[in-house]
Backbone:
């Protein structure tokens, strides 16, 4: 299985979550910096569009160029109510988080989400909650070098993310359960 295969399986499950909220309720967030313990806690019953490694995830590609650095999150749910991106999901299987810790892809995604969205958008004050999630099998998190950049991100960004007026959940989606489904779901 490749990282792209794992990403495709997760997207397939997220699409199933549109019609079956129980699917999102089974997607546990570990190490959550908020009270959200599942993806359903973030999304609720709200409708969203999904962008998968698609440059269209960013509605203004000329804004925050230095911070964005051409990043394209693996998966981005965008709220249909507010039109804002609400969750950035980075999927990893064997690869490390790219770039130096202080400007890694997850730090850039966090800063982009923080600056391009609102905690409570006027069009949808009770919108999908904002989050930056790393989706990977538990073995990825057990690898010291890989875990280091993620831990740096968590240590650096949690104090800002957890402020009440910011409220961006940081957490992990451990995908061991999805790896088991891969044999059944791949075409």
Residues:
């Amino acid at each position: 299985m490749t990282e792209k295969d794992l990403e495709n399986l997760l997207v397939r499950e997220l699409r199933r979550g549109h019609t079956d909220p129980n699917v999102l309720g089974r997607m546990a967030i570990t190490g959550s910096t908020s009270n959200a313990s599942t993806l359903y806690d973030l999304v609720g019953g709200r409708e969203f569009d999904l962008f998968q490694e698609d440059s269209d995830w960013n509605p203004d590609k000329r804004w925050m160029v230095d911070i964005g650095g051409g990043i394209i999150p693996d998966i981005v749910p965008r709220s249909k109510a507010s039109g804002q991106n609400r969750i950035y999901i980075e999927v990893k299987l064997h690869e490390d988080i790219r770039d130096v810790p202080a400007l890694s892809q997850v730090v850039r995604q966090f800063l982009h989400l923080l600056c391009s969205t609102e905690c409570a958008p006027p069009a949808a004050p009770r919108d999908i909650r904002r989050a930056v999630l790393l989706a990977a099998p538990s073995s990825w998190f057990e690898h010291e070098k890989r875990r280091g950049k993620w831990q740096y991100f968590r240590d650096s960004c949690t104090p800002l993310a957890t402020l009440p007026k910011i409220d961006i959940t940081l957490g992990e989606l451990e995908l061991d359960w999805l790896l088991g489904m891969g044999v059944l779901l791949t075409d």
Observations:
- Residues 183-187 have pLDDT under 50 and may be disordered.
- The chain has one domain: 3-185.
